[in-house]
Design goal:
Layout (H helix, E strand, L loop, with lengths): L2 H46 L7 E4 L4 E2 L7 H10 L3 E2 L9 E5 L2 E5 L3 E3 L2 E3 L3 E7 L2 E6 L7 E2 L4 E5 L5 E2 L12 H9 L11 H14 L9 H10 L6 H17 L2 H11 L1 E5 L2 E4 L1 H9 L8 H10 L12 H17 L5 H8 L17 H11 L5 H6 L3 E4 L3 H18 L9 E8 L5 E5 L11 H4 L2 E2 L5 H9 L10 E4 L4 E2 L5 E2 L10 E4 H6 L3 H11 L1 H11 L17 E2 L1 H12 L3 E2 L5 E5 L5 E4 L5 E2 L3 H17 L16 E6 L5 E7 L3 E8 L14 H12 L12 E7 L13 E7 L14 H12 L1
Parallel strand pairs: 1-15, 3-4, 12-14
Antiparallel strand pairs: 1-11, 2-10, 4-5, 5-8, 6-7, 8-9, 13-14, 15-25, 16-17, 16-30, 18-23, 19-22, 20-21, 24-27, 25-26, 28-29, 29-30, 31-32
Helix pairs in contact: 1-6, 3-9, 5-6, 5-7, 9-10, 10-11, 14-22, 16-18, 16-19, 16-21
Length: 765
């Protein structure tokens, strides 16, 4: 081949190679454009459409402050502390501060968006004395103010991320300047990436032989947190740079900064990831983002580089050193003076205790909330839509129920193996049906078996009020003084089996009035009464009161062989406590969007299922249970002025100790027993009643005083003969009757001259 031909062939090869390079370059450019378009779609779709999955927030009842409210000074101070209010020596100037001098408080509230409207921040003057607010002053004509409710839980998405969204307008003093000083000083001017920083990082990575330095801008950090993993690879850094440029091209610096404020990872609480400065300020300092002081802001900003390493709860020395470094940087840039930086560095970290909601504080109550929510909401909505769920929980009553139940169960074991007794408590508003406290077991923080909702046990004598109510609804046949036979008897069934009920004491009492048979819980008299009425009739009453399932129609039903959970018992006794109105138990008041729009409102609903007259008579007998019957020991625990009504219940060999009763404020159901059904020495009076009494002594202030319906008249009755008599006669007892059912026979006093003279003066004066 000639030299000339060789040169031509070499030229053709060169042209072909250049063409190949051009073609490959063109393909690469097209692939880069396509990849960039793909990344752009990823950026815009995530940034604009459902930017964050926000867990639902669950709130307790708010504390209401007004003259006469049953709130003592210590209770108010504890509530303010639980809400993260800061005590100050002088008059409070900022929201979330209070001053206390004995029982006198000056409070600057934060304000809150409630379902019925926004409660503004207010300056309050409150005086509390002897468990009651005796003085209340607020601006304008306001006679009542609400503190913001405690947040008791969150319902998280599967990935466990949690955040409280904040806006740029919420930022505290020098937040923006502090963040940019530490994380990205060139943020106002760059377009998503800093070429000089990338070059420095590239050289460092080459020298190390691996990716050891990022050189990321704040925008790149947001991209990494939002869309990418944390793996240190060149491909990830390449995508990060392109997406950062796209983000800066499409959105303003303000939108990017606000997104970063809500996305930054700032720690871990168990399985929950703390994202954003809004949640971090509450998690570490128990205060809203806008209330952060500068040394607190410096700590949170400093933690961005290493939330685990600079965790102020677990590594306080490292956290303080990091905070002080941030303060020095602010002084170096002239944002604060050297003297102020020095003063702020002297401050402690001021980190609050871990919030209650992060330690499964109310697992049993939250089981009930989730069950009620499941009727109207999907799990996806609860975990991602940021709903605000306002519940009926009273944190102060819940704390009382927990401490009294746990403490008394230990005391009731009486030498048995420690931990053998378990229990459950349900407390509701007597008239509202709102579940105000719920204890699912002895370990109140354990999110396991919830005995209040799931432990079905025989209810024993708690069933008896249904039998007696069935009788009292027939005033032509039964009144409170109708004689019942309390003697042994035996039933023989078709299959040859026999059943002979006996009283707890083993003794019989002959003829007893109906009210005494209930107040002393005589089994023999109660079963005889129930058999005369018919088991189906008693079952129908139970279902009217609130029992959902129809129990087996056996005579043993009359002594409580039917199994119910404490919550089901509370549902049934709620009807009794509310005067014959069936009131559904509620754990939720309302659900709103994050912006406050009401989605669901669970208002009070009631249906009258028992006439007022028979129910009033049953109330009388249940008050007698507490005055002189099986529940009388309760007045060793509560003042006599706190009139109560209730019923004890005990199953065979003390396997189950029950009490259900109510004051003017609350209905309470308590169960105590062993998970393994072992026998105990407890009765309803010596076990469950002791817990109930201590809870009510600490939390109930209003006596139960039922209104006498128009269909009922009270008469003085001779307790021996059952005839109408005079007030001052020996053995005279004032008893209610449905009109027309009172005794027709009048019995003159057979007592001495003294009582006759007393009655003579009463008639005159």
């Amino acid at each position: 081949m000639s030299r000339k031909a060789g040169r031509k062939q070499e030229k053709r090869r060169s042209i072909g190679f250049i063409g190949l390079i051009w073609r490959l370059g063109l393909v690469g450019i097209l692939m880069l454009v396509a990849w960039t378009i793909y990344l752009d779609v990823q950026v815009t779709s995530r940034f604009e459409d459902h930017r964050w999955e926000i867990p639902s927030r669950v709130y307790a009842q708010p504390l209401e402050l007004y003259a006469g409210a049953p709130v003592g000074a210590e209770a108010l101070a504890q509530e303010l502390e639980a809400l993260g209010y800061q005590p100050v020596s002088g008059a409070p100037r900022d929201a979330g501060q209070f001053q206390r001098q004995g029982g006198r408080f000056r409070i600057r509230t934060r304000g809150f968006l409630f379902p019925d409207g926004r409660e503004p921040a207010r300056n309050l003057r409150v005086t509390a004395d002897s468990g009651t607010i005796t003085g209340f002053e607020a601006p304008g004509e306001t006679a009542l103010a609400r503190l913001e409710p405690r947040r008791i839980a969150s319902i998280y998405p599967g990935h466990g991320e949690d955040r409280v969204l904040v806006q740029l307008d919420d930022q505290p003093e020098l937040f923006r300047e502090t963040l940019l000083t530490v994380e990205d000083r060139g943020f106002p001017s760059h377009y998503g990436v800093e070429p000089s920083a990338i070059a420095r990082a590239f050289i460092a990575n080459l020298q190390a032989g691996r990716v050891v330095q990022g050189g990321s801008t704040l925008t790149q950090q947001l991209v990494k947190n939002f869309w990418l993993s944390s793996e240190q690879t060149y491909w990830r850094k390449f995508n990060e740079a392109i997406m950062a440029i796209l983000l800066e091209a499409r959105y303003s610096k303000e939108a990017i900064l606000e997104a970063y404020m809500n996305e930054a990872y700032l720690g871990q609480s168990g399985t929950r990831a703390i994202h954003g400065f809004g949640l971090a300020s509450r998690f570490y300092f128990a205060k809203p983002f806008s209330e952060l002081e500068l040394h607190e802001t410096a700590l949170l900003v400093g933690m961005v580089r290493g939330p685990g390493y600079y965790n102020p709860r677990t590594r306080p020395e490292q956290a303080r050193a990091r905070r002080d470094l941030v303060l020095e940087l602010l002084a170096d840039r002239g944002l604060i003076t050297e003297s102020r930086a020095t003063s702020l560095k002297r401050r402690t970290l001021d980190v609050a205790a871990a919030p209650d909601e992060d330690t499964h504080r109310y697992p049993a109550f939250m089981d009930l909330v989730r069950e009620h929510l499941s009727r109207d909401y999907r799990d996806e909505d609860l975990e991602t839509a940021g709903l605000r769920i306002f519940t009926t929980l009273d944190p102060r009553l819940q704390a009382t129920a927990e401490s009294r139940a746990s403490g008394m169960m230990a005391a009731l074991e009486q030498g048995q193996e420690a931990g053998t007794l378990e229990g459950a408590v349900v407390i509701t508003g007597r008239e509202s049906g709102e579940v105000e406290a719920l204890v699912g077991g002895r370990d109140t923080r354990f999110p396991g078996f919830n005995r209040a909702m799931n432990a079905s046990r025989p209810i024993g004598s708690l069933v008896k009020p249904a039998t007696y109510l069935t009788a009292l609804e027939k005033p032509a046949r039964y009144t409170l003084i109708s004689p019942l036979k309390d003697e042994r008897f035996r039933l023989e069934f078709d299959n040859g089996d026999t059943w002979s009920p006996a009283n707890f004491s083993g003794e019989s009492h002959g003829q007893v009035p109906l009210h005494r048979a209930l107040s002393h819980s005589y089994n023999q008299a109660s079963v005889r009464l129930g058999l005369n009425l018919g088991v189906p009739a008693v079952t129908e009453t139970l279902q009217r009161l609130g029992m959902e399932d129809e129990p087996p129609q056996y005579p043993s039903l009359l002594l409580g062989s039917v199994e119910m959970t404490p919550l089901e018992v509370a549902r049934m006794y709620q009807t009794i406590a509310s005067g014959g109105f069936r009131v559904p138990l509620r754990s939720i008041r309302s659900v709103t969007t994050p912006e406050g729009e009401v989605l669901s409102r669970y208002d009070l609903r009631m249906e009258q299922v028992v006439e007022p007259g028979p129910m009033h008579l049953l109330h009388y007998a249940m008050q007698e249970v507490m005055r002189e019957g099986t529940g009388s020991s309760v007045y060793n625990l509560i003042p006599e002025r706190l009139h109560t009504a209730g019923k004890t219940g005990t199953t065979n060999e003390g396997r189950d100790s029950w009490f259900a009763g109510f004051t003017g404020d609350h209905l309470g159901v308590v169960w105590v027993g062993g998970d393994d059904y072992d026998a105990t020495t407890l009765t309803g009076g010596s076990g469950a009643l002791q817990i109930w009494g201590r809870i009510m002594a600490d939390s109930s202030t209003r006596a139960f005083s039922p209104v006498v319906p128009g269909s009922v008249d009270y008469h003085w009755v001779d307790s021996k003969t059952g005839g109408i008599t005079a007030k001052g006669c020996d053995g005279a007892r004032r008893i209610p009757f449905i009109q027309g059912s009172e005794p027709q026979e009048e019995v003159p006093c057979s007592d001495g001259m003294g009582n006759r003279i007393q009655r003579w003066f009463q008639q005159i004066f």
